[in-house]
Specification:
Blueprint: H1 5-12, E1 16-26, E2 30-33, H2 36-43, E3 49-58, E4 60-64, E5 71-74, E6 78-81, E7 87-90, E8 98-99, H3 102-107, E9 115-120, E10 123-125, E11 137-146, H4 153-156, E12 162-164, H5 166-169, H6 171-186, H7 191-213, H8 221-226, H9 228-239, H10 247-254, H11 258-269, H12 273-291, H13 296-302, H14 308-319, H15 323-332
Parallel strand pairs: 1-9, 2-8
Antiparallel strand pairs: 1-11, 2-7, 3-6, 3-11, 4-5, 4-7, 6-12, 9-10
Helix pairs in contact: 6-7, 9-10, 10-11, 12-14, 13-14
């Protein structure tokens, strides 16, 4: 396993991406998106959690979520809604938004992607593409999906709006947005796969840059990754989940006393190191149940349990069903 703890987690929770809309805009415009939960099955079937994102390929605008100040957007920016909030994207704050009901999204779920949408003077045309040169703003919009269960500490560590301005994005993100526009318009073979990978890469980079921007006194899983001691402890638990760890052993490895590590870990993550390890072992076990043909007994040993019975009890306590039953349910999903 890698000491790159963020990558390790993302592999385990099955991050998936998809570009769904190519939106051309002119004059005053405002569009409201449903909560991701309402349309999740249409846009990312089988995903437990869905996040929407927008790449600003041309022009500028605003992003707003209820209860938060609107965020100014410019060409080259990326804005993401990690908690799946209903939100509005508009040419100016406060405009009455046009809203597409979830039923419309479900009705178009099998249409070739990305779906073209044009908005001019508030009038929506979801059948035609506006030429790029005629559009004052262009958005490439999509979704990211991942597992929440058994254990995904990343999502709770992200804000309701995650804005990556072009000035902080780096040159490669601008090229990603440009490529997304090209793939959206040319409809070449393999284009869907290219757009999926681009959106997944974009999410990882946005998460990394958000981590870099956290305040010194921030807490949560991402802030813990950055901490000298908690980050090292997390890396060790991810690297060797099958090791018979104790807090004393972990403390010696990271250079803290047992009590100091316990206190520091709880201050960042909200629970002790051994509680985190227990959750992570079940998450790894779930991944192996889904992706391999290994027996439950073998998986139990692989993730650090002394017996199949001990693993099964812990798995059932956290997931709500025995490992074998969960595996069958996943195979039929």
């Amino acid at each position: 396993m890698s000491r790159d703890t963020l990558s390790d987690l993302l592999r385990s929770v099955r991050l998936r991406g998809a570009v769904f809309f190519y939106v051309s805009l002119r004059d005053q415009w405002s569009a409201e998106a449903s909560t991701a939960r309402e349309i999740a099955e249409a846009v990312m079937p089988g995903c437990e959690h869905v996040m929407e994102y927008h790449m600003i390929a041309k022009g500028d605008g605003w992003a707003a979520v209820s209860g938060l100040s609107p965020v100014r957007l410019a060409a080259g920016d990326i804005v993401m809604f990690p908690q799946g909030d209903r939100h509005v994207i508009s040419s100016a704050p406060g405009l009455e938004p046009n809203r597409r009901e979830p039923e419309w999204v479900f009705a178009r779920r099998n249409d070739p992607k990305p779906l073209p949408i044009s908005i001019r003077h508030g009038v929506v045309d979801d059948q035609a593409r506006m030429p790029i040169e005629d559009a004052e703003a262009v958005l490439v919009c999509g979704f990211l999906g991942c597992d929440l269960k058994p254990f995904n500490p990343l999502i709770a560590a992200l804000p309701r709006i995650l804005h990556l301005p072009a000035s902080r994005a780096g040159g490669w993100v601008a090229r990603v947005i440009d490529q997304a526009v090209v793939e959206s318009n040319e409809r070449r073979p393999g284009g869907d796969a290219v757009l999926e990978r681009l959106s997944e890469m974009m999410f990882v980079d946005v998460a990394r840059r958000y981590l870099d921007s956290l305040a010194e006194d921030a807490t949560g899983w991402l802030a813990g990754l950055r901490d000298r001691f908690v980050g090292k402890a997390l890396a060790l638990l991810h690297e060797r989940p099958d090791h018979p760890w104790t807090v004393d052993d972990l403390g010696r490895e990271v250079g803290l006393s047992r009590s100091a590590l316990h206190e520091r870990f709880v201050s960042f993550l909200g629970h002790p190191p051994m509680h985190y390890l227990a959750n992570w072992r079940i998450q790894l076990g779930a991944r192996l149940l889904r992706e391999s043909n290994r027996t439950v007994a073998t998986i139990a040993l692989d993730v650090g349990y002394d017996s199949e019975a001990a693993f099964s009890r812990a798995f059932r306590r956290m997931v709500g069903m025995p490992p074998a039953t969960w595996r069958k349910a996943q195979a039929g999903a």
